[in-house]
Amino acid sequence: MTARQFAAVAVGLGLVTLSACGSSGSTDGSGGDSKTVTLVSHNSWAASKSVIAAFEKESGYRVRVLTDGDAGQAVNKAILTKDNPQGDVFFGVDNTLLSRALDNGLFQPYAAKGLDRVGAQYQLDKDKHRVTPVDYGDICVNYDKKYFADHRLAPPASFDDLTKPAYKNLLVTENVSTSSPGLGFLLGTAAAYGDTGWQGYWKKLKDNGVKVVDDWQQAYEQEFSGSAAGRKAGGDRPLVVSYASSPPAEVVYAKPRPDTAPTGVATGTCFRQIEFAGLLSNAHNPKGAKAFLDFLISRRFQEDMPLNMYVYPVVQGAPVPAEFTEYGPAAKDPATMAPADIAANRDQWVRSWTSLVLK
After folding, report:
1. What is the C-alpha to C-alpha distance for residues 16 and 7, in angstroms, rounded to an integer?
2. Which of the pair, 263 or 330, is modelled with greater confidence?
3. Span 228-268, pLDDT tens digits
């Protein structure tokens, strides 16, 4: 989630999206004064201006936003700068990278107000409260409906299907070392085929012409033939690793709105992703950071979030937009992996994947 919305269009819709500064900032640009809380995030951060403005009015803090690439890139940079962090709060570390952030001491503990309303299944650090769950979604292969209709070919439904000759040279995915959806897709295959089987699966996928690019934006907006941006860029891959919530974005941002989404989801390829925010160690404004973490799991933000970042709320009772229900329901049985298993295997799997797929 992530890059789960079309930033260029979203800016025109009045959202706070990628920028060097958010709705306002400190005069010296550091974000370190007591009246400013600085949020560090990946490129998919977005929130309605009115909702941020309400937080600023009620809390007395100004919000400054710094975004820096895909989730994997943003987390890695935050770890490298943890002794002198760029901001106070980090949003966008997910369950695929959580142990890396925690093991490197990226966050300091804080139990956000309202955690009792957050589903227990999302609280993966509930004993120490170093991170606060904010949203969840499913990383899945998306397909271009028109391509498959024109070629009279059924779209793939499972991981196994992607290795079949009928789908040769059709899939684009992201580099697992730099991209959160790319890593989630790798973990989904590891969950499906096990520690001894996923490499054999990726050998088949490589032989079947999978294309690897750096990040979600490049994969979805440039290489994928099914997105509005992809068509403009001449994308020729009708399969892409993205999100189950990408089809609603295609509908919401289209003018005029189509009756049905132009893209679909291969539901047998989904991996459940949970995103977190945390109070950065050595934050300049920890008090403001705590107020902002409380805000992220407030009903106001949780209701505003789905149609901005195309993710699902973790707060119980927060409504899901009708567009999600109709065009992008969450996967019924996504692949999952215990955080301990991810922590024990992720780095070795990434190294093995890099050697196998990129060399």
Report:
1. 10
2. 263
3. 867 666 799 999 999 999 999 999 988 889 899 999 999 99
On the question of pLDDT at 24 being above 90, the answer is no
Beta strand pairing status for 15-16 and 47-48? antiparallel
232-265 in b/e form (b: 16+ CB < 10 A) is eeebebbbbbbbbbbbbbbbbbeeeeeeebbbbb
Token pair 């400013």 in the structure block, residue: 36
* Cβ-based burial of 32 (10 A; exposed 0-12, middle 13-18, buried ≥19): middle
The predicted model scores a pTM of 0.85
Cβ–Cβ under 8 Å, residues 101 and 75: yes
Higher local confidence (pLDDT), 280 or 178: 280
Contacts for 131 with CB less than 8 Å, ≥ 6 apart: 93, 98, 101, 102, 107, 124, 125, 276, 277, 278
Cα separation, 109 vs 229, in Å, equals: 40
- DSSP letters for 280-316: ETT-S-HHHHHHHHHHHTSHHHHHHSHHHH--EE-BT
